[in-house]
Write a structure and sequence with these properties.
heterodimer; A: about 350 residues; alpha+beta; 2 domains; two-stranded antiparallel sheet; B: about 90 residues; mainly alpha; 3 helices; about 85% helix
Chain lengths: ~350, ~90
């Protein structure tokens, strides 16, 4: 009986210590995420890119670099008068690139209800590209995020105010709304004035992509698969040769915001050889139709080889901390001594 | 960030040492041969804590060596517990 009680005491003491230890360890091991974007600070620090930006009139350039030889890569984004150029290359690798023009706004009526844009169904076309954006000054700004990463923003209002482009690039991961912008990409928010669409018509946003490399349409974006963004589709542009490959991508959300309310986005035409490819995203309005803005989120980015290397790199091995070790040793010794003293005192009180 | 391995190793070492001493005292009082196995098992546990501590503070840690040594000591501990259980 005495043994059973002692065993129970020992078990209870051990359990209590385990709980205290476990809770302190949970706090101690918690990797910090100072900006609350869900990406640990140590990974952000390891993958923080050096970003240089410049603006000139109706264009801007972003040059984003990560690593040192032999593991380094470069992601360049340039914009001029409604057309984006995305280019990526890594040391000793092969470069991939594409050009993306924000081509047109269209309004179409699906007269035969077949869900396709047939000849004669387009009731209005508004040219974008140079027509809407040439000689429109880019407004650049920047700020520093909570974790110290710089965030650069470029605002391009269309000449006729029907379309506004808002581009965001960061050095580190950055939470914006319900997505996490990675350092390997630029977020492109396209705001469209819904008044361009006649009643009963469907809005369409047409892009023209031009590249010499292999293009594939994916049902789910890399950002979605990595939980950085919900529900996206993606077009990958991959260059390969000599046993190496590199990929740049253009992705877009399958949900747009019409006056702040989500509406579905449909891709009307998959890319077909040869380049250039026209991509049309369509937006069927509900009732009532939006009156202020339709906002489409898209992303222009790259698959960074260096990011993947650093993300998958094993963490540091065990590290001795003499003060912590001695302090813990002393604490555990005090705990054991205290329990022994208490047990002896209890035993001596027994008749 | 706190290196948890320090906390764990120190705690394990202290508890293993305390249990070893308790088991030795129990054997000296009762002269029960079974308790030698128990004291031995806790003693090897303490030894393991010491060895891993040395590894922890050594400038270079060979992970394979650590695994082999840790596994070997675990095997000895289990064998001693096995002997303690069988002889009861």
């Amino acid at each position: 009986m005495v043994f059973t009680r002692a065993a129970a005491m020992a078990f209870a003491s051990s359990a209590a210590l385990a709980v205290v230890l476990a809770s302190s360890l949970a706090v101690a091991d918690g990797t910090t995420d100072s900006d609350g974007d869900g990406v640990p600070d140590d990974l952000e620090a390891a993958t923080q890119r050096t970003v240089a930006v410049s603006t000139a009139g109706d264009g801007f350039n972003v040059s984003s670099h990560l690593g040192t030889a032999p593991e380094e890569d470069q992601f360049d984004l340039s914009y001029h008068a409604g057309t984006f150029d995305v280019w990526y290359s890594q040391t000793g690798g092969i470069a991939s690139s594409y050009e993306l023009e924000v081509l047109n706004l269209i309004a179409w009526k699906d007269g035969n209800a077949n869900g396709r844009i047939d000849p004669g169904e387009i009731v209005r076309t508004i040219a974008l590209g140079p027509s809407a954006f040439s000689e429109v000054r880019v407004v650049a700004s920047n700020r520093t995020d909570v974790d110290g990463g710089r965030v650069f923003q470029f605002l391009v209002p269309g000449r006729d105010t029907n379309v506004t482009l808002n581009v965001t690039v960061g050095q580190r991961f950055e939470r914006i709304d319900n997505i996490v912008l990675t350092p390997m990409e630029a977020r492109l928010d396209i705001g469209v004035n819904p008044a361009v669409v006649p009643p009963g018509a469907i809005l369409g946003l047409v892009f023209r992509m031009d590249t010499r490399e292999r293009v594939t349409l994916e049902d789910h974006s890399w950002d979605e698969e990595n939980h950085f963004a919900p529900d996206e589709r993606e077009i990958n542009v991959t260059a390969s040769g000599l046993g190496r490959s590199s990929t740049v991508f253009f992705s877009w959300s399958n949900t747009a915001l019409a006056d702040g309310s989500p509406i579905p986005v449909a891709l009307m035409n998959a890319p077909t050889q040869p380049s250039p490819y026209d991509l049309t995203l369509t937006y069927a309005f509900g009732s009532p139709a939006p009156s202020t803005q339709v906002l489409q989120h898209a992303t222009l980015g790259v698959r960074s080889t260096v990011y993947e290397i650093r993300r998958s790199a094993p963490g540091p091995g065990p590290q001795g901390d003499f003060i912590l070790y001695v302090a813990t040793f002393a604490g555990a010794t005090a705990f054991v001594a205290m329990t022994i003293v208490l047990a002896n005192r209890r035993r001596s009180r027994k008749p | 960030m706190v290196a948890i391995e320090n906390v764990l190793l120190a705690t394990v070492s202290v508890f293993a040492l305390a249990l070893t001493l308790i088991a030795v005292i129990a054997f000296r009082r009762t002269r029960d041969g079974h308790l030698v196995f128990l004291a031995g098992a806790f003693g090897v546990f303490f030894l393991k804590g010491l060895v891993l501590t040395v590894f922890l503070f050594s400038p270079t840690i060979d992970l394979r060596q650590t695994f082999v040594l840790s596994g070997a000591l675990d095997l000895v501990i289990l064998a001693l517990f096995y002997g303690f259980t069988l002889r009861r």
